[in-house]
Design brief:
The protein is of the alpha/beta class. The protein has helices at about 5-25, 30-35, 40-50, 55-75, 85-90, 90-105, 115-150, 150-155, 165, 170-200, 215-225, 240-250, 270-275, 295, 300-310, 370-385, 390-400, 425-435, 455-465, 480-490, 505-515, and strands at about 205-210, 230-235, 260, 280-285, 315-320, 335, 340-345, 350-355, 360-365, 410, 415-420, 445, 475, 500, 520-525. Helix 1 (about 5-25) crosses helix 7 and helix 13 (about 270-275) packs parallel to helix 15. The chain starts with 6 loop residues before the first helix and ends in a 7-residue tail after the last strand.
């Protein structure tokens, strides 16, 4: 063979590389799901992987170690088979990779990966990169075996392939970086198409932003405007440039009168970018608190970012009363939400008086919590401004259903379950606990604490812990924010026997099965996704 590798060896290298490319790609499902949650940021993925108790790197290292040891044992056992010994050593790779993929699939992501076109393209790029990396390594090992001429190394030459699972995090980041060569200009063109499509349409655009309540208020407003107009809104919690562009490009705007765009932000300038895509004729600001302080760094930056929607609003804005003081110098005309009074909230729903245009109506809704009355009032003011009658607004409010994962009430075997999994802010947490306390029977809460509060995170979670004192059972999940919550609970005189710590949500749910009784109410508050 000389210093060159024969075509038979080349074919062997290619086949082995393709098999490893497939195995590595199938083993990366969770990593790709987390990457998707991070908005395809490789830096955030690596930072997440380094967190204590994440175990991603440790599990991949264990996989690599098991593969290396078993490959060595099998290869030596088949050393009598000559050149087939090294190939026999590849069998354990398939076995252990298969076991890893099976075990990984048993523990689903709390926020499942969405197999979008981008996600599938990334999988293809990852497969190619993993295959190329495996091919280079296999070729080098075969070349080294040929040059050195050592019988022992020839038998054990595929053991070093065990390094591949250990490097899978880096391979995923490399694939993500390579895919962005196409994705970034593709997304830019996709967003430009949506911008031009909206500009050419006659739809009235409504933008909704705030630190909390955006999705709920969007759904409320869509129901109210739907009494008179054809309404299109961004689905679920889609509030990014791509999310808005997807809603626009996937629909025929000539079939709609109003487009409601939820607008989220983590940095100053994000709202301005969204408003450039769909400049709002009307806008709503639902409230301000220290949410996403980890990226905003200060409350002033949050106010500045949310205020960007007012600079882009072409007609009128409607602002929640508890944050109106931040926007006194609004560049556009605005109304403060002052149409709600006499709010009565209990476990059966919420009642309040709604006053619009000098007329009042008593409104009832199944939505829970005093705060929902003000979300309804904010949406009602815009709907009334748009020509929807008070009677239709009240009817729409009474017909509202729970928003998924936002104080969503279900009952099972006489047990009330309050799903407030998407609640991740201080004000919302207090409101959720108020709702929990409105129920009879025992009251239980499962929570990991509140995230993305930056320098306020420890202090706010300590205060949050104080609010948990007096409940019949508190289960703290994980270890991200447990310590300050536990400290606050103790400071408020909470009973230590009623406070449990569990590593995962699955463990907390298993604990609940042992303690829940008919008549109990359990609140799941802020069900953190896997990226935390």
């Amino acid at each position: 063979m000389g210093i060159f590798i024969s075509w038979e060896k080349t074919l062997e290298c290619v086949l082995i590389a393709l098999c490893f490319g497939a195995l590595l790609t199938m083993s990366s499902t969770k990593l790709l799901g987390a990457l998707q949650e991070f908005g395809y940021s490789g830096k955030k993925l690596l930072r997440w992987a380094r967190k204590r108790n994440n175990m991603s790197f440790e599990r991949l290292s264990l996989l690599g170690m098991l593969c290396a040891l078993s490959c060595a044992v099998v290869s030596l056992c088949f050393s009598f088979a000559g050149q087939w010994a090294a190939l026999a050593g590849l069998v354990p790779y398939a076995v252990f990779f298969g076991a890893y993929i099976y075990a990984d699939g048993k523990i689903a992501l709390r926020v499942p990966a969405v197999r979008t076109r981008r996600f599938r393209r990334l999988e293809i790029v990852l497969f190619l990169i993993c295959s190329v990396a495996a091919y280079i390594l296999v070729t080098l090992l075969n070349f080294a075996a040929e040059v050195w001429g050592s019988p022992a190394f020839d038998v054990l030459r595929y053991c070093p392939l065990a390094v591949l699972p250990v490097t899978l995090l880096l391979l995923v980041c490399a694939a993500n970086a390579a895919a962005k060569i196409y994705e970034v200009p593709h997304n830019r063109n996709y967003i430009r198409k949506a911008t031009e499509k909206l500009a050419a349409s006659d739809v009235t655009v409504v933008g909704i932003t705030g630190s909390y309540g955006k999705t709920s208020t969007k759904n409320i407003l869509a129901a109210m405007l739907g009494k008179k107009y054809r309404v299109l809104s961004t689905p679920r919690s889609h509030n990014t440039p791509i999310g808005i562009a997807l809603a626009v490009n996937a629909n025929d705007l000539s079939q709609y009168d109003v487009f409601i765009a939820e607008m989220g932000a983590r940095n100053v300038g994000d709202i301005a970018e969204l408003c450039a895509i769909c400049p709002p004729d009307y806008s709503l600001v639902t409230g301000i608190c220290a949410q996403h302080l980890e990226t905003f760094e200060s409350l002033e930056n949050i106010i500045k970012a949310k205020g960007e929607i007012l600079s882009a609003t072409r007609k009128k804005a409607f602002i929640a009363a508890d944050c109106a003081q931040y926007f006194k110098d609004s560049p556009c005309p605005f109304e403060v939400c002052d149409c709600v009074s006499d709010v009565v909230a209990d476990c059966g729903g919420t009642q309040f008086t709604l006053t619009l245009g000098g007329k009042s109506a008593r409104v009832r809704t199944k939505l829970l919590g005093t705060h929902c009355a003000y979300n309804i009032g904010l949406a009602a003011q815009l709907a009334y401004e748009s020509g929807v009658s008070l009677a239709d607004i009240a009817a729409a409010a009474e017909g509202l259903d729970f928003v998924e994962h936002r104080l969503q009430l279900t009952s099972l075997n006489g047990i009330n379950i309050l799903d407030d999994g998407y609640n991740a802010n201080v004000k919302g947490a207090r409101a959720a606990l108020d709702v929990l306390r409105s129920f009879g029977g025992r009251k239980l809460v499962v929570t990991p604490g509140i995230v993305e509060l930056g320098i306020l995170e420890e202090g706010e979670n300590r205060e949050f812990g104080k609010l948990l004192a007096g409940l019949d059972l508190v289960i703290l999940v994980g270890d991200t924010l447990v310590a300050p919550v536990k400290e606050g609970y103790a400071e408020a005189g909470g009973d230590p026997e009623k406070l449990l710590l569990r590593a995962t949500l699955k463990d907390a749910q298993a604990e609940l099965k042992n303690v829940l009784e008919r008549g109990d109410t359990v609140l799941f508050l802020n069900d953190l996704p896997d990226i935390y």
